[in-house]
């Protein structure tokens, strides 16, 4: 285009032999008209080509324009959400209009899924828990004074009396365990979100709930620092020590340390008597021999 414009301008050049007078020949006029026509065609084609890709005007306040567009989009989105919410609300109100006042205030019956899921048995292995067995089950209420380990032992003794052909004992325990709970313990089982598939999982969660780690630490501290009271005999002292060990069987104290803690907590007179019976020093005996000797002496006091 630039070359054609230059050619056109060269064709329109004129000579000034005299001031105030132009001398243009006929050939130059024809060439000039032809060049102008070519220039017009080039300009039209270039404008049509550039019109296919329009350029946006340069915005001097682009940040303000962006903020305005975001505000408009937020308003449109909010209006859309409000319209959807109003539609759902209208649908719900239309459903409520079809219900009576009694139906509106009556709570819906929604059953929480049962947390115990036993493995399915074959049809030939079906059974039912007898009422006589349920009445024999011990009761655990979830009180702080109750012993969960003792409850599990008594529960195991009762369930072991009911032996059915082809029925696993753990299956019977999972079915019968809810009947052995009452009060806060039964509420814990009913509100349990965890699904129990095995008896081991149920027993572990039961002990974690009603025998927490803080209680374990307290009993372990009592075992390590046990002392014989002045008015208590050797037999009573041994009973209290054995009871602490039985309440918390997971105390993780070795047999050697148990004998040592028991021996260090003895009063001087009983300690001298045990040393004499052991032939000089109890600590020279093995833990099994020492426990057997202490039990024999305690039974005679």
UniProtKB/TrEMBL annotation:
Domain of life: Eukaryota
UniProt domain Retrotransposon gag: residue ranges: 176-266
Coiled coil (UniProt feature): none
InterPro entries to which the protein is assigned, alphabetical: Retrotrans_gag_dom
Name of one Pfam family that matches: Retrotrans_gag
Name the UniProt record assigns to this protein: Retrotransposon gag domain-containing protein
Organism: Mucuna pruriens (Velvet bean)
Lineage per the UniProt record: Eukaryota, Viridiplantae, Streptophyta, Embryophyta, Tracheophyta
């Amino acid at each position: 285009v630039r070359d054609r414009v230059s050619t056109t301008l060269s064709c329109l050049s004129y000579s000034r032999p005299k001031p105030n007078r132009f001398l243009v020949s006929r050939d130059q006029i024809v060439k000039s008209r032809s060049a102008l026509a070519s220039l017009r065609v080039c300009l039209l084609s270039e404008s049509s080509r550039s019109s296919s890709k329009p350029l946006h005007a340069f915005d001097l306040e682009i940040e303000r324009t962006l903020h305005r567009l975001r505000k408009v989009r937020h308003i449109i989105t909010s209006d859309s959400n409000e319209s959807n919410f109003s539609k759902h609300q209208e649908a719900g109100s239309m459903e409520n209009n079809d219900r009576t006042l009694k139906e509106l205030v009556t709570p819906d019956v929604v059953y929480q899924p049962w947390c115990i899921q036993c493995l399915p048995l074959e049809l030939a292995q079906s059974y039912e828990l007898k009422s006589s067995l349920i009445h024999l089950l011990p009761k655990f209420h979830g009180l702080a004074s109750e012993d969960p380990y003792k409850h599990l032992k008594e529960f195991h003794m009762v369930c072991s009396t009911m032996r059915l052909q082809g029925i696993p004992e753990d299956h019977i325990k999972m079915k019968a365990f809810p009947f052995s709970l009452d009060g806060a313990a039964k509420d814990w089982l009913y509100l349990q979100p965890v699904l129990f598939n095995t008896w081991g999982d149920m027993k572990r969660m039961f002990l974690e709930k009603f025998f927490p780690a803080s209680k374990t630490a307290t009993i372990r501290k009592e075992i390590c620092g046990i002392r014989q009271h002045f008015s208590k005999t050797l037999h009573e002292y041994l009973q209290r020590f054995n009871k602490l060990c039985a309440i918390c069987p997971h105390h993780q104290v070795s047999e050697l340390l148990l004998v040592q803690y028991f021996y260090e907590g003895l009063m001087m007179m009983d300690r001298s008597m045990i040393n004499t019976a052991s032939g000089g020093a109890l600590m020279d005996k093995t833990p099994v021999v020492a426990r057997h000797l202490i039990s024999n002496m305690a039974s005679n006091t």
